[in-house]
Amino acid sequence: MKRFLTCLLALVLAMSCMLALASCGEEETSKNEDASSAEEASVSKEYVLAEGYKLFDEDGVSFAYPKGWTLTDGSNPIMMDTNGNNINVVYETATKQNTETYKKLSKSTFMDLLGNYLEAMGMEIGDYSVEKKTNGGDVEIICLAYSVSMQGVGMKMYQYIILGEKKHYTVTVTEMTEVGDVVDEVFKSIRID
Predict the structure, then answer these.
(1) What angle do the packed helices 96-103 and 2-23 form, to 10 degrees?
(2) 22 pLDDT exceeds 80?
(3) Which of 8, 29, 56, 124 maximizes the CB count within 10 A of its CB?
């Protein structure tokens, strides 16, 4: 089971990176800093950290995640529970090309920009949606929600793409089992500097 979760985690990271790599091919950048001092902090623009959540705040992006989840070190931070549910974030330098690609993302372009890649990796794609909305933080967020299965294992993916002036951020919540309000809390709390 541990080997399966390790393989699944690698797959989730690969899917999260796909949009960044497919749209521009530029190198991702990130730095890890200690976010523990911000655990009880509130997020700017009227969002107050919900009870039972910590604040991830790194490299220009912040969002809430459950206190019981483990934050891993590495070039792409991952917050994970014991069931394989996880949140990860990918950073990329903003360019004209990748900005235009993200802005074209819609339900009608989903398969061309992401779905075909997932199918090539052996995944079956279920329902999917693409919406552009704000969460109260005055930033438009491109919201992808889709279900996939691979080798009989199903999961739901929620990807939040935030286009900043200098960097773009993709925050992905992978739901292997029901995670309650985690998906909503992540979305409501996302802010960029």
Answers:
(1) 110
(2) no
(3) 56
